[in-house]
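Customer escalation, tier 2.

The customer says the design service returned an amino acid string that "doesn't look like it belongs to this structure." They asked us to rerun it and document both sides in this ticket. The original structure tokens are below, unchanged.
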């Protein structure tokens, strides 16, 4: 036990990035774990029990405002990620972590990564809204896993690696979220917007492309002798593969199989009409 404690102290003190280690919620994993445990307890237990005998909350205005703010935040994160490194200065083949606290680009990227972490906490409201609206089918294992893991991953990134190779993940993810939350905002306005939302399945396609790009980009670390933590690269690759599998299964189940079933039903209907 003492060895584990010493290892923990060594990692937290000697491996932390000097720019971000003292920022709010960055001092240790305890506060984040409390938030995650509270989120899981509410969304999987307390929330559904509270809503059991209640009518769903409408929350239309709140959701329109929330999704609009998320679009703005995603645009900000995407822009900052590009301007802090990925548009001009960063190397897509190998970008080591910069520990120089006096480098303005390092500080700018660290601010962007920290903002990304805060956004992952705000995004926990996605599930809270589902519970309060009694959209329990949308509180899927994939949804809960994704929203639980992302704050943890972004906390690790912000505490230890707030710039460098792995930050491309946040830039791509922010771009995807611009489109995703714009879609959610339109759905929140009302059913009359459905005719403009034919592109829902392409969101999942973009997410699959996102995880594939991240996997390839991170995999380079194993073959190019880049001075970037191999353990973090392994975890990023593993996470990308898990999400590729989960989102791929979701795509097949909700679009490929449903379209095949729809075509089969239409053929049966046409055949029946001909017989009549």
């Amino acid at each position: 036990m003492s060895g584990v404690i010493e290892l923990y102290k060594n990692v937290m003190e000697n491996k932390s990035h000097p720019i971000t280690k003292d920022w709010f919620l960055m001092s240790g994993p305890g506060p984040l774990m409390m938030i995650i445990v509270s989120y899981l307890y509410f969304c999987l237990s307390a929330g559904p029990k509270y809503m059991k005998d209640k009518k769903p909350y409408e929350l239309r205005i709140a959701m329109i405002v929330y999704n609009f703010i998320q679009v703005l935040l995603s645009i900000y994160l995407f822009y900052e990620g590009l301007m802090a490194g990925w548009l001009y200065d960063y190397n897509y083949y190998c970008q080591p972590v910069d520990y120089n606290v006096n480098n303005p680009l390092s500080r700018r990227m660290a601010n962007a990564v920290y903002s990304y972490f805060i956004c992952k906490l705000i995004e926990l409201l996605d599930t809270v809204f589902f519970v309060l609206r009694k959209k329990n089918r949308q509180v899927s294992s994939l949804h809960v896993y994704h929203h639980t893991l992302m704050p943890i991953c972004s906390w690790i990134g912000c505490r230890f690696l707030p710039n460098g190779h792995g930050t491309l993940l946040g830039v791509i993810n922010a771009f995807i979220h611009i489109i995703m939350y714009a879609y959610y905002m339109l759905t929140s306005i009302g059913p009359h917007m459905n005719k403009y939302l034919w592109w829902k399945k392409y969101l999942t396609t973009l997410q699959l492309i996102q995880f594939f790009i991240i996997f390839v980009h991170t995999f380079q670390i194993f073959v190019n002798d880049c001075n970037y933590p191999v353990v973090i690269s392994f975890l990023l690759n593993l996470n990308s593969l898990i999400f590729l599998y989960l989102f791929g299964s979701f795509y097949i189940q909700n679009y490929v199989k449903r379209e095949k079933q729809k075509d089969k039903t239409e053929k049966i209907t046409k055949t029946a009409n001909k017989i009549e």
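Tier 2 assessment: The sequence is consistent with the input. The chain has nine helices and no strands. The radius of gyration is 22 Å. Sent an explanation to the customer and offered a walkthrough call.
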